[in-house]
Amino acid sequence: MGGSGLLAKRKSGSVLNVIVHILIRRENMGRFIDLTGQRFGRLVVLSRAKNDNDGKARWSCLCDCGVTAIVQRSTLRRGESKSCGCLKKELAAEAKTTHGMHRTPIYKTWSDMKTRCLNENDTNYKYYGGRGITVCERWLEFENFYADMGDKPEGLTIERRNNDKGYSPGNCYWATHSEQQRNTRINRMIRYNGKKQCLSAWAEETGIHCDTLRYRLKHYPPQLAFNM
Predict the structure, then answer these.
(1) Are strands 157-160 and 195-198 parallel, antiparallel or unpaired?
(2) Distance of alpha carbon 111 from alpha carbon 197, whole angstroms
(3) Overall pTM > 0.90
């Protein structure tokens, strides 16, 4: 009888443990929190995903960059997951750019200037680096370029005084669109009284209509064309 009683108690204890486990599991299921639609950093939760191999809950999330990522619920709620991974990459890139200006207009001007002069795969290389237009050694560092040129004025672009020379402090200034157009290689440069400039600039200076001046210069030397 004693042995039978002990066995009965063990069975009773096992049944009790099973019941307690079931009750705890039901309680945890009752505390399920739906994260659908909630935002965590750059991530917006779309739907429940399959648990990982350890049984941990996961959610399918859409990142602001457009990438879908499967993320553990625990890392979302603790704030450890804020993007698909793009945020980490951006922060790493910013850390390498110590000046913190890589998204500014002046930085883009500097980057574009180097690209068209140094990158043979750039579509504009043939008009710049391909014909010998260079960036001076000092301006290969953004900090030096910024120190010399300052912030980019709104509506202006970087221009070279001598169109056949490279980018350097002594040859560059901020120009309007019309000034830049005048300085292109396709403009006809006219020398008169020791001064050389394009047709439209001479028309402005002399008050002679551009078409009239063009006609005169086509048929007469500058000394006559400017004094008829």
Answers:
(1) unpaired
(2) 30
(3) no
